[in-house]
Write a structure and sequence with these properties.
The chain is of the alpha+beta class. The strands form 4 sheets. A 4-stranded mixed β-sheet has the order 9-10-11-12, with helices on both faces. A 3-stranded antiparallel β-sheet has the order 1-3-2. It has a 3-stranded mixed β-sheet with strand order 4-5-6. The model has no long low-confidence stretch (mean pLDDT about 90). Helix 9 (about 180-195) crosses helix 12 (about 265-280). The relative contact order is 0.08. A hairpin with a 2-residue loop joins strand 7 and strand 8 (about 115). The protein has helices spanning about 5-10, 15-20, 45-55, 60-70, 120-125, 130-145, 150-155, 165-175, 180-195, 235-250, 260-265, 265-280, and strands at about 1-5, 25-30, 35, 60, 80-85, 95-100, 105-110, 115, 200-205, 210-215, 220-225, 250-255.
Length: about 280
């Protein structure tokens, strides 16, 4: 993919460019943008052509950038490109966003295509997506090692008062919510009581692991995770071994996040109550 200006900089005359178009060596995609060698374009080819058509300092953005980063599938619609606010290209098939204030950290390249950074892309998505879809995009960015929630949270500090910050913070504050031990007990113990459980033993070593809450008469162990998003493979392996050790000892291990204890107490209560009822049903 090449722009007319790039060809001129390489020394091609107007006549030389037109000759190559006439002989099929260049294929016009948009005015001033050509595919080299063949007319058929891949999705990346269309994205690159759209950016080139919109001129210098243009960048793929919004839904199209999310598709390039693989954090969201773009289902139809125009290719989205951001340009400096002083420019106003209007090519057909391209949705152009005229924007002031896009700084160098907001822009990068991927597969040789100028594109908004993962953080800026998530900020742009946050201005239009409902919470569940935005959270899914954050999850995908984390899964592809583009930006983890802690780094995203820190990056938002450089974008205060910008659109998109508030909905992103709302999700991150909820999903990376961490309680102190005392705060966790203060919120969790009333939930356990409402589920029909007595006061548990806390912070006990059991089957080789320290457990958060233990009810020996019910054979129930509850563990709580501070972070939902970013657990390393080593942490995940240890969590599985911990749960497997408790199960092998005849116990029922349950795992909740701190955020669930804080924001979804009814779900936690119903789960505890169901497990208690099952244990009583099958008790010898």
């Amino acid at each position: 993919m090449v722009a007319r200006g790039q060809l001129r900089e390489l020394g091609f005359s107007v006549a030389a460019i037109e000759h190559r178009v006439a002989t099929g060596r260049l294929h016009r995609v948009w005015r001033g943008v050509y595919a080299v060698g063949r007319a058929e374009l891949t999705e990346r080819g269309r994205w690159m052509a759209a950016v080139l058509r919109c001129g210098p300092q243009a960048a793929l953005s919004h839904e199209s950038a999310a598709a390039l980063w693989r954090i969201r599938n773009q289902r139809g619609g125009a290719i989205e490109v951001s340009v400096d606010a002083q420019r106003d290209p209007r090519p057909p098939g391209i949705r152009v966003h005229r924007r002031a204030g896009l700084a160098a950290p907001d822009l990068t390249t991927r597969h040789a295509i100028s594109v908004t950074s993962p953080v800026r892309t998530l900020l742009d998505l946050a201005t239009r997506l409902p919470s569940a879809q935005l959270e899914a995009a954050i999850n995908e960015a984390d899964k592809h090692d583009l930006v983890d929630p802690d780094a995203l949270r820190s990056a938002l500090n450089a974008h205060t008062r910008q659109r998109g910050v508030a909905p992103l913070r709302a999700i991150l504050d909820r999903r990376t919510f961490v309680l102190t031990d005392s705060g966790l007990e203060r919120l969790f113990l009333p939930i356990a009581r409402r589920a029909g459980l007595p006061k548990p033993i806390t912070r006990l070593r059991l089957n080789g692991f320290k457990v958060d809450f233990y009810w020996p008469d019910h054979g129930l162990v509850v563990e709580t995770d501070g972070l939902r998003y970013h657990r390393t493979p080593t942490q995940q392996t240890r969590d599985r071994r911990r749960d497997q050790a408790h199960t092998a000892a005849g116990l029922t291990p349950l795992r909740f996040t701190h955020a669930q204890v804080r924001y979804e107490p009814r779900h936690v209560e119903k789960t505890l109550a169901s497990v208690v009822a099952l244990r009583l049903t099958f008790a010898p």
